[in-house]
Amino acid sequence: ETVPFPGTVLQIGSTGDAVRTLQEYINTIATVNNNITPFNVTGVYGRATRSAVMQLQGENGLIRTGNVNEATWNVIANAYKNVISSQQSENMQFPGGTLRQGDSDF
Fold first, then answer.
1. d(Cα 12, Cα 33) in Å, to the nearest integer?
2. What b/e readout covers 56-72, taking b as 16+ CB neighbours within 10 angstroms?
3. Distance between CA atoms of 9 and 84, rounded to whole angstroms?
4. Which of 2, 32, 35, 21 is nearest to 68 (CA)?
5. Is pLDDT above 90 for 102?
6. What DSSP string runs through the chain?
7. How far are the Cα atoms of 19, 61, 64 from residue 50, in angstroms, in the given order?
8. Considering only CA atoms, which of 96, 91, 42 is closest in space to residue 22?
9. What pTM was estimated for this model as a whole?
10. Residue-wise pLDDT tens digits, 12-69
11. CA 26, CA 12: separation in Å to the nearest integer?
12. 66-90 mean pLDDT
């Protein structure tokens, strides 16, 4: 589950838990999107965060402002959810053997 939009636009100079969450979301997205460069999660909205936000805005048809309004937050949160859900399904791959009635894990 993702955190809802914090209610205020995030931009250069913003700080706090919402920025930290945003940065964690972006770094997770960066694991599958080579256009995003991972950066340190600091809770301070700086140039690296702004650059990644602008990249994601452009890729998703939003105006590249570098600021995170509700629309941008939702796009990033949904992309984060997609990455997490694909990672979870990779971890649940077929174990390689057929299970039959009476089989056990012991």
1. 23
2. bbeeeeeeeebbbbeeb
3. 25
4. 21
5. no
6. --PPP-SS-B-TT-BSHHHHHHHHHHHHHHTT-TTS------SB--HHHHHHHHHHHHHTT----S-B-HHHHHHHHHHHHHHHHHHHHHTT---SS---TT----
7. 11, 16, 10
8. 42
9. 0.84
10. 999 999 999 999 999 999 999 999 999 999 999 999 999 999 999 999 999 999 999 9
11. 16
12. 93
Distance of CA 75 to the CA centre of its chain: 9
Q: Which two tokens stand for residue 13?
A: 């100079």
**Backbone phi, psi, residue 14, to 5°:** -65, 150
Indicate the residue type of 16: G
Q: Can you read off the two tokens belonging to residue 45?
A: 């909205």
